Amino acid sequence: MNQLSMMKSVEQFLTDNQLLIADKPALVAAHVNLKNLIDKIETLSRQQSVSTKADTAIKGEAKKNMIDTVLKVAAGMAAHAASTGDTRLKMTAAISHSKLDDMRETDFVNQVRTIYDAALPVAAGLAEWGVTQSDIDALDTSSGEYMSKSPTIRNVKVKAKQATSDLKANFDEALTLIKTTLDAMMLPFKTLNPSFHGEYLNARVIIDLRGGHATTPIDTKPVE
Q1: Could you give the C-alpha distances from 76 to 53, 58, 67, 91, 121, in angstroms and in order?
Q2: pTM above 0.85, yes or no
Q3: Contact yes or no for 190/224 (Cβ under 8 A)
Q4: Which of 146, 69, 152, 139 is closest to 105 using CA atoms?
Q5: Which of 51, 116, 160, 190 minimizes the number of CB atoms within 10 Å of its CB?
Q6: How many structural domains is the chain composed of?
Q7: Domain that holds residue 113
Q8: 151, 183, 206: which is the final residue of a domain?
């Protein structure tokens, strides 16, 4: 942040003094390049900071609701199995909250689908035990919606990771542009216009935003 603040200070300084550098095309081009790099850095910073917390929380809530529905349907299945002597249905319905909660994503969805497939043919019998067709249908629709959230979260993370990589590249390019190009192009003004050159050096100072102290690290120190 301190170095970005310095970059923006230099860019603003050049913007404020466009008339003084207008007759030097190479300096004007370097200024434009710096401005474009700063715009990219700020865009990438926003992409990098995108959080998946909201999507993850929504997905967690969806899983909780699904577990509640699975257990309701499974309870109805167990009761129906007991009344009809259906051993296979009884075994399928033998599922606990803790087991569902601890399952890996794919295994969890497969379990939901198993309960759905087993409940569907006996839906009429489950109604006696408080299980509605809507409850059964919810297992089908909610499992699909639940899985659809994984690619969204994954894509956000991928984009953020790529933004981090691109951010470093653009950041390094901007620092190099200032140190190797702008510093050198501004050096003649030390004689031609000492005040202008002095103002540039002031813009080049890196301010420690946490403590308010000026610093000029070796790798970014301006040529004086």
Answers
A1: 35, 27, 14, 13, 13
A2: no
A3: yes
A4: 146
A5: 51
A6: 2
A7: 53-151
A8: 151
